[in-house]
Amino acid sequence: MLSLACASAVVAAAGPDPIVATRQSAMKEMAAAAKTIAGMFDGKLAYDAVAFKAAAGTLRTRTGPALIAEFPIGTLGPPSGARLEIDQARSEFEALARHIGMLASTLAAKAERAPPSITDDMRMGSGPAMGGGSLLGKRPAAAEADPAKAPAEHLLHLILQDCSSCHSRFRQKVL
């Protein structure tokens, strides 16, 4: 019992696993970037083309292969929020990470050409959802067929949808 308590104290004194800490930091950066962009489209933050470009760049940098690299084998499960199932469904996890990366790269490319104010072609548009009830906008099929044709706001929503899918499948609450 005493050796277990000492081992726990040594682990606690050593601090969190550096891979887990780096991964958590990256996730916080992505969340902050997405929140910045969403705030601009929601009108909660003033639109700033430079901040939009920076936030979209953060999403591009932190997704795709970089996101996959944040989850090496042996760093999953407690104390991390990453479920062990990532390794059992590695191809599914990596496909989601690559898809988010592709969407983030497309969004970042649009942000590179961002005008000084939000334009109608950057927005998803108003009106009823089409194609069977998607709540993400008017052109879900077009966005999946060619994301470059999707408005920036719609791309953000697709990114958030992928993030939610990944978290619901591969993230666990850690106490």
TrEMBL record:
Q: Which Gene3D superfamilies match?
A: Cytochrome c/b562 (1.20.120.10)
Q: Tell me the first and last residues of the signal peptide.
A: none
Note the InterPro entries from the entry: Cyt_c/b562, Cyt_c_II
So which domain of life are we looking at? Answer: Bacteria
For the region Disordered, give the residue spans: 117-147
* Molecular-function annotations in GO: electron transfer activity; heme binding; iron ion binding
Pfam families on file:
Cytochrom_C_2
- Biological-process GO terms, alphabetical: electron transport chain
Q: SUPFAM superfamilies, per this entry?
A: Cytochromes
Q: What is this protein called?
A: Cytochrome C
Its lineage reads: Bacteria, Pseudomonadati, Pseudomonadota, Alphaproteobacteria, Hyphomicrobiales
